[in-house]
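Recall the central idea of this unit: under ordinary conditions, the amino acid sequence of a chain determines the structure it adopts. In this exercise we apply that idea directly, starting from the sequence alone.
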Amino acid sequence: MKLKFLSLFVPFLLVAAGCNLPARSSQEEQEGLIFTLAAQTITAAALTEQVATPAPQTETPTPIVTETAPAAASTGTSVPCNLASFVADVTIPDDFNVTVNSAFVKTWRLRNVGSCAWTSGYQIVFDSGDQMGGPASQQLTAGTVAPGQTVDVSVSLTAPNSPNTYKGNWRLRDPNGVIFALSTGPFWVQIKAVAAPAANTPVNTPEANWPLVKQGDQGVEVYAVQYLLRANGLNLNADGIFGPQTRARVEDFQTQKNLTKDGIVGPQTWSALIVQVQQGSSGDAVRAAQMLLKDKFGYNITVDGIFGPNTADAVKSFQTSKGLNPDGIVGPITWRNLVSK
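Accordingly, the structure predicted from this sequence is:
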């Protein structure tokens, strides 16, 4: 474009210059003037083109925008350190019938759903309602319950002396004294204390008396003592042999219940030791009853600690054979007949 413009413009200048030069100028002066004008014109044209023509620009690519879906609003919160959830009543379901003044053991199965492990520094504590002779607090576990794991928590209680419905609420406490429970509040034990049934046998018959079980004895009654001690929260082996360890645990139990500490399981200790069980119960007290029914009285049942229909049928059959009300509940009178020698 530039060359074409100059090729047209320079001759025009030359002609114009030739027409306007004075006659007196020499040929050389004329030529010099012409070339000077041409050079100036070319320079001016170049400068004009530089100003008029914008400098080339580097093309900047348009950024690609990827649409991102808005992040979902967070609906959860961080898991608290201490939190429990209820899994099951291992023993004593709600509204379980317990004879007045009878000892029993309530066991809950709880799951650790918090973010902190439960250690030996954690405790179960009485919260409100009817304490039923239970402790104000006791150790929750001797080991460690990691988040997600379950633990069976037991307390030894005694039914009040008046027939009624009783409910006690319980919580947990961490080593720093922080009290917590389920997300819905405390967990509880609820029983119906019922009057002791009238005895169906004369007081002076052998069946009416509790047997004496002591160190040196062996057999199914010793198994029953050992299982019942375990049901009351005492740790020992159930081997059917009343040795020094069993005697020591009997003495511990007698101390707890303010009984004479003689290491002998007699009427008072038996009455405090037994735990009423019925269909739906489970644990060591059920094992004690099943062991007696199977090994002492020949009933074809499994000693598995689960009071199911087969165990209930065996109990009813046993009660009928002893002239008792066949209600399928192993209460004080049925226990007394089961352990009598």
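The radius of gyration is 50 Å.
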